[in-house]
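can u pls check wat happens w/ iron/sulfur cluster
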Amino acid sequence: METESVLTRRFQLILIKPSHYDDDGYVIRWHRSMIPSNSLASVFAIAAEAGERQVLGLGVALEISCIDETNTRVDIPKLLAQLRAHDNFGMIGLIGVQSNQFPRAMDIARPFREAGVQVVIGGFHVSGVISMIDEHALGLDECRELGVAMFAGELEGRMDAVLQDAAAGSLAPLYNYMNDLPGINETPVPFLPKHYVTRTLGLSTSFDAGRGCPYQCSFCTIINVQGRKSRYRTPDDVEHLVRMNWAQGISKFFITDDNFARNRDWEKIFDRLIYLREEEKIPLGLLIQVDTLCHKIPRFMEKSKRAGVTRVFIGLENINPTNLLAAKKRQNKIGEYRKMLLAWKEVGILTLAGYILGFPADTPESIRHDIEVIKRELPLDILEFFCLTPLPGSEDHQKLWRAGVPMHPDLNRYDLEHVCAPHQNMTEAEWEAIYLEAWGLYYSKAHMRTLLRRGRVIGLPLMSLVKLLLTFATTIPVERVHPIQGGILRMKHPSERRPGLQQPHPAVFWAGFAWETVRKHVQIGSRLISLLLMLRQVKRDPAGDSYMDIALTPVDPEEDAKLELLAPTMAKQKAAA
Ligand code: B12
Ligand code: SF4
């Protein structure tokens, strides 16, 4: 009898990737979110492999379930009942928790801890704070008080100990591997079963081909958590994960490396992807992130195209050299921006760039001016704005913390959309106002028409461009969240309101939600119609094929020196001479 009961034990491993709260205090959740979480895919794959090796002993099964809160409600009573049915033989894993998600993660953890369920939290907040501040600051002591075990560092090669401790009911308060970054070659590759992937848009998934970045931007947390040395997956691993996904019909990937161009093995990985695409006819579609000097790497652009890259995200950050220097972003050379963007245009790949507002030299006027310069002179498709934020784990945050500069105490705001620290030229209200205004300035009707006209003459996929324009032009004004946190059909539930805020009467809540949903869809629908009409006009324009403007003009060093884009750089050079 005894043996039989041991054999039937099933450890419940529930992996939850928390979302965070919007400005009204509701969890940001969608019917379909943008893209599956790579953190969740990584931890799931590591756990699944541990399960196959029966790390909890012969006859003890590991039952893993995943919840990405950006697209699935965390139904706490249901999960508690599931765990109770197994005598609480299980564990909640709070996965890939960023600083802005930490308060929500704690709110999820609380009822589980009250019920005696074991909880472990991992991700950039815990790792970043331990790396740059200490083991107690910014909510980490709250974890200890609640009995939530913390995991700092990376999980590859370390899962067995966590699972075995949890199964024995004796989790340590802290697993700290920050000083020991594992190699990620030949470790389980990130993977999510298709029924999780279909909760996101466009049947695409994500993986990291490498970790670590050699640069030293002061606002960056990545170098202090994942290190500056390039660690990467082997081409065999990448091929394996592509085949696993293709077996379930998925061939579109977001390669999440912060800078794939600095992955030391980028070429070997691209060669393998080119083989899979050209010889095996797997219809790969890739989004990669690169730096502004990637066009200088021989063969990088051409092989990107052949490997199936359709979109690139570039960390442009700013066009003011003083700001770039202040952020130690020395690798961004403004004189190279046009060359790099035109090189991507030449291979027909859509470009998206991140632009940070709130560097020391910024004022509302300078930001307005810079956006107009970008629109006129840079051949860029999509621009995304962020507020400069001292993210826990970054050098910027560490400096302010040590200097005792007051920063916003609510971690939920550290999402790059809210102002969290003082600025020398702008009040908090001015900064937040120019952040919202910036979106409207770039996604004006006139500029979206220009982008479509440039797209036509270059031969970009215009429907893809329209979809991106719709997302980036509407998500902020309609949904009040950043487009990369967006999705389709915003979902809300009264139980998801932040504790401490007033709970509305259910009737009032649901009536408000229904009205809000209708209103938003009318707004989005009318923007879509106007974009489609614009596209039709652009396509039918008889002069469309000969369209030309400053941005599309090939680089000529003498002529480029006269552009406003380079005015601050030229002035600096003159002064230095
Ligand atoms: C890809 C990515 C995204 C994607 C996410 C989708 C996807 N496909 O994954 C998108 C573009 C949507 C995105 C959005 C945002 N992101 Co982002 N993102 C990243 C990026 C580049 C990679 C994440 C990743 O996959 N890492 C690899 C995984 C495997 O690492 P990991 O999460 O640390 O997990 C490992 C360990 O921590 C540990 N672990 C993790 N969880 C757990 C749990 C347990 C129980 C255990 C035992 C272990 C464990 O094991 C894992 C494997 O080793 C990171 C930077 C980076 N290099 O990580 C930024 C990063 C995580 N993002 C960041 C931010 C701020 C955001 C946004 C708020 C920005 C915005 N305004 O939109 C939003 C938030 C939206 C959201 N809902 O997540 C910050 C977070 C910083 C911080 N201190 O919080 C980072 C670090 C980048 C930065 N600017 O510094 N992001
Ligand atoms: S290039 Fe990107 S990943 Fe590298 S240090 Fe700068 S911000 Fe961080």
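Residues 213, 215-217, 220, 222-223, 258-259, 291, 315 surround iron/sulfur cluster (ligand 2) (CB under 6 Å).
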